[in-house]
């Protein structure tokens, strides 16, 4: 501002040179305040000492600016007002403007950096919690599958090689394709089919198993292993030893704006409440945490029980 008002120098080259020299003192005061006084005094709530130090810095900068103007400006009328109070006040306000401008920009940058750090921290915490929840689900599934395979090998069943093949497909999916967030819905469906095939081999004709998939699933993505807990629980209750003829019915419907997964299973008619009151234990609790983390406000989960069946209806919206 002072440079624009007095235009020191006899030509544009000198004007730019002298203006840059004056602005360098503005920059010194602004950055000394922004990177020293603010950090050491303002952030530590030493308000009075901060204001005093800031005013002292600006006053200290005004003197060399006045000397530069007095020595470089050739106009005698401007030289005469350099050491007046009016000129000092204009110089003081000009430096104060530079200081405040840089401080505001720095505070905005600090606020932005803090918000980005908070978002990164939340993302890291989210990923850590999701990995922890997955780590509880995967061993549970693997334990059940190996138990099934062990039972078949004891019987020397011809179905054991098929179980190994299906289990290897599932493990490949779990280990190599579920660690990068969302997966194609078609892969999740194939994963469920492989699991169902394993259960069909284990249970034989004792349980009637139906699985239907409707709608266009080609362009849909979903968080991996989201339906596994419900499928496991349905087979657990639908194939309970107390049930003479169990059944499991799974239906998946994909539309433009939602994915609906509905699974029903038979329960023991004499004690349905016992089977339905704790349908998943830790598994269901983990699944609800995953849903809250991954689909906040974008899902509905209904658990419906009757004397002869238990139904889970999960709808995910875009």
Spans of at least 5 consecutive residues with low confidence: 1-7, 271-277
Estimate nothing, just give the exact number of structural domains. 2
User: What composes the largest sheet?
Assistant: 5 strands, mixed
Question: How many β strands by DSSP?
Answer: 7
CATH structural fold name of the largest domain: Heat Shock Protein 90
Spell out the helices and strands N to C. HHHHHHEHEEHEEHHEE
CATH second-level architecture of the largest domain: 2-Layer Sandwich
Lateral arrangement of strands in the main beta sheet:
2-4-5-7-6
Question: Quick one: overall form?
Answer: rod-shaped
SS summary, helix count: 10
Give the gist of this structure.
The protein has helices spanning 2-6, 12-42, 47-72, 76-81, 85-154, 160-176, 185-203, 228-238, 272-277, 282-294, and strands at 183-184, 207-215, 221-222, 246-254, 258-266, 299-305, 309-317. It is α+β, with helices and mostly antiparallel strands.
């Amino acid at each position: 501002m002072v440079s624009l008002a007095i235009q020191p120098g006899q030509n544009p080259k000198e004007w730019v040179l002298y203006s840059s020299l004056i602005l360098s003192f503005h920059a010194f005061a602004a950055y000394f305040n922004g990177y020293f006084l603010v950090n050491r005094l303002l952030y530590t709530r030493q308000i009075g000492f901060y204001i005093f130090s800031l005013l002292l810095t600006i006053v200290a900068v005004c003197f060399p600016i006045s000397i530069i103007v007095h020595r470089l400006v050739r106009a005698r009328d401007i030289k005469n007002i350099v050491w007046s109070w009016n000129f000092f006040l204009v110089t003081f306000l000009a430096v104060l403007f530079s200081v405040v401008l840089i401080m505001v920009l720095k505070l905005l940058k600090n606020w932005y950096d803090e918000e980005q750090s908070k978002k990164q921290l939340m993302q890291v915490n989210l990923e850590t919690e999701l990995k922890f929840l997955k780590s509880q689900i995967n061993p549970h599934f693997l334990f059940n599958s190996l138990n099934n395979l062990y039972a078949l090998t004891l019987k020397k069943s011809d179905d054991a090689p098929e179980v190994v093949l299906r289990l290897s497909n599932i493990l490949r999916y779990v280990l190599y394709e579920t660690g990068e967030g969302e997966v194609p819905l078609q892969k999740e469906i194939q994963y469920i089919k492989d699991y169902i095939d394993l259960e069909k081999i284990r249970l034989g004709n004792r349980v009637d198993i139906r699985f239907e998939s409707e709608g266009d699933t080609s362009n849909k993505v979903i968080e991996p292993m989201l339906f596994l807990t419900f499928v496991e629980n349905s087979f657990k209750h639908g194939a309970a030893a107390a049930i003479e003829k169990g059944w499991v019915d799974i239906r998946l419907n994909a539309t433009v704006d939602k994915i609906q997964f509905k699974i029903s299973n038979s329960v023991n008619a004499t004690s349905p409440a016992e089977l339905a009151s704790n349908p998943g234990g830790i598994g269901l609790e983990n699944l609800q945490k995953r849903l809250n983390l991954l689909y906040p406000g974008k899902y509905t989960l209904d658990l419906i029980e009757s004397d002869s069946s238990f139904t889970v209806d999960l709808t995910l919206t875009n």
